[in-house]
Amino acid sequence: RSRRGKHVKLSFVEIRKAYFNGKPKRSLYVRLPPELGLPNGVIGNLERCMYGTRDAGAIWETCYVDCLVGEGFNQGVGSPCCFWHPTWEGSVVVHGDDVSALGTNDSLDKCEAGLGKSFECKMKGRLGAGPEDLKEIRMLNRVIRIVPTGLLYASDPKHAKTLAKSMGLEDCKI
């Protein structure tokens, strides 16, 4: 497909250690593992958020909003996880530590560079119609594939097998 005559693509980026980017706004303490060899009763005061703490999700949201708004994106009114850049004409959706973006190569390059200034990123790849583009990617337990009629969005077969096994349905047809 194209946007004003330019080919658009989908970019998929994973933010590594996403929740550790935020700083707690209150004192958070954790029990330290006995493997550290410290005396009983010694606890740690977190200087960074940690997965599983109540504040982690909200603080991570503040981190990525600050990054994207700082890069010129407008945050969605209907969903605070959706963003639009009026100059680059790029769209971004954040789901946990996964960022999906739609735009031209130029807008995706700028978006990925902006994310890279603030976070450690793993570029999962770009889907597109060009010969150099990926035609399939796995993201959020889904398979996203370029097909002649557009995009195919289906459950990841490995995830489906895991679910079937957890429910005692290993012998069913998936």
Outline of the structure:
This protein is an alpha+beta fold. It contains 3 helices and 13 strands, in the order βββββαββββαββββα. Strands 6-7-8-9-3-10 form a 6-stranded antiparallel beta sheet, covered by helices on one side. The protein has a 3-stranded antiparallel beta sheet with strand order 11-12-13. Strands 1-2 form a two-stranded antiparallel sheet.
Summarize the helices and strands and which ones pair or pack.
Blueprint: E1 2-3, E2 6-7, E3 9-15, E4 29-31, E5 43-45, H1 56-70, E6 74-75, E7 82-85, E8 90-95, E9 98-103, H2 105-118, E10 121-127, E11 136-139, E12 142-147, E13 150-155, H3 157-166
Please characterize this protein's 3D structure.
With 174 residues, this protein is of the alpha+beta class. Helices cover 22% and strands 33% of the residues. It has 3 helices and 13 strands; from the N terminus they run βββββαββββαββββα. The protein has a 6-stranded antiparallel β-sheet, covered by helices on one side. Strands 11-12-13 form a 3-stranded antiparallel β-sheet. A hairpin with a 2-residue loop joins strand 12 and strand 13. The longest helix has 15 residues, at 56-70. The mean pLDDT is 89.
